[in-house]
Each structure stands twice: as C-alpha cells, then as structure tokens.
Amino acid sequence: MSTSAEQVEAFAPPARVTAPPRLTERHPALYPLAVRVHQLRRRVAWATSGATWASDREDEALPARVKRHRSLLLRELAGADMRLQHSKVTNLRLAAARVDGLLVRPGETFSFNRVVGSCTRRKGYVDGMRLSNGEAHAGVGGGICQLANLLHWMFLHSPLTVVERSEHSFDPFPDNGRVLPWGVGCSIVYNYVDLVVRNDTDRTLQILVHVGDRHLEGDLRADAPPPHTYRVSARDEQFLRHEGRVFRRNEIWRTLIDRRSGDVADEELVKQNCALLTYVPQGVEVLDV
Fold first, then answer.
1. Is the peptide bond between 133 and the residue preceding it cis, with omega within 30 degrees of 0?
2. Is the pLDDT of residue 131 over 80?
3. Cross-referenced PANTHER family, in alphabetical order (predicted)?
4. Does residue 77 have a pLDDT over 70?
C-alpha cells in the first residue's frame, strides 16, 4: 500500500541510521578516545553551565503526589538473555539508591548522570543488558535506562522542564506487554548522554524510587500541588518502509488539565520520534514511502 504525499513529506529517517558511518565505526580503535573527548566536554559543560545542581535529600515524603508509576523488572523480550535481566535488578537497586529522596528545589537542575554517576564494577555494578545500534549486549551497569525511562515518564507528568533527553535510534523489541507509549524512553551513556530537567516553578519537587519484588517503583512528590495535571499520549503512530528498511514513527503529545476545573488548559507537542526497526513487525500495516 502506498502512502499519501503528506506522509512522505512528514517522514524523515533518523540521521543516525541514514548518515555515513562514523569515524569510530570505520576505525573502532578510536572509540575509547572519542568517549573520553565526549566525557571531557561534558565535565567542562557542567563546570561552566551556571546551573544549580540538585543534591539535597529528604527521607520523609513531601505531602503532594504529582505522579506515581511502576515498571515491571523482568520482561520476556525476544532474543534477550534473561540472565542479563536478572543482573539488571542489581544495577537498578544501586542506581535507585542514588536518586531516592532527591529534592529538586526552585531554580535547580537534575542530571541523571551527575546523581547516579559512573556505573563501575568497583561500585558493585554487574553485567546487564545494554542496547547498542539496536542490538542487546552485556555491559557493566546495563539496565539503568529503565530507571531513566521511569523518571522521564514522571517528569512529563509534572511542571519540570525537560532540558535534555536522548532516545534510541532503533526500536529493537516488539510491543510485548508495553505499558507506556513507544517513544518516551531514554538513552543513558555516562556522562555525555543524559536526562536533565530544570525546576522553573516555585515548588520543591522530590523523587522517590525503589526496587520492589516485581517492579521498579517511582513517586514524584511536591511540597504543594501544582496547578495542572497532565495526560501524555502517542499520536499518528505509523510503520513505514523506506529503501527496504522499516521505520516506526509517532508524536508524543502532552495535555495540561486545570486541577480545579478539570478543563484543558493547553496542549503541546513533546517529541516527534522516528526509529529503525530491528525486528519484523507483525500484525501492523506497513506503508511504503
């Protein structure tokens, strides 16, 4: 089936999968050097940004709930090693402990990488599942992206301003038991691929996270209820075949609802997503563009 001219115009494969191979892909020996360069740039940016970084903690929960969410720790993913998923739980416990109780006061900025830090064996992290170019590999600290995903979902349901968030350029797994819309996840690489939010409000927010028996559980709190509640949804979901490859695209929209009246106060486009599938989609229409 062919698609419309409007769909063709709107479709743009992600630059990451359409650009020529990077220098480090042509010469893998240069990859460690490139990583160190990126990390140095980030450290310089941290030092010169002028941001006030969130660092204070409070054990007692703030009174107002903004958003609560939990995600299943172990999922059956085609082609994924379940051993790595079990190891991921160890990594999530360590990373969640670094974030739990953190306060983001008015004017402060939260950086996932600054708070969690580098995930090394010396700190107790083990091999978990990491995604690279759409493929699952074992890597120290693998799986902590699940914590970033949960935080980002809660942040989208709050007045916090998302300053930085990077997504995967590939969609590696079919929607087997997916709870959240596709396209709201995060990619984390210490320290130069980050999740960063800023508190531009007059309220203090608090992040509570912990690993339960079956779920990673999160609770975003505030010292006073914000004026709006939020509804986040995916729109215009499509699977598109382009030059023999299948891409997935959608839009993530956020609706602001007045807490007192229940009326829609505003609606905003959060993100346009497009990623290359690394699996054969089943039971969905694929349009040729």
1. no
2. no
3. EXPORTED PROTEIN, EXPORTED PROTEIN-RELATED
4. no
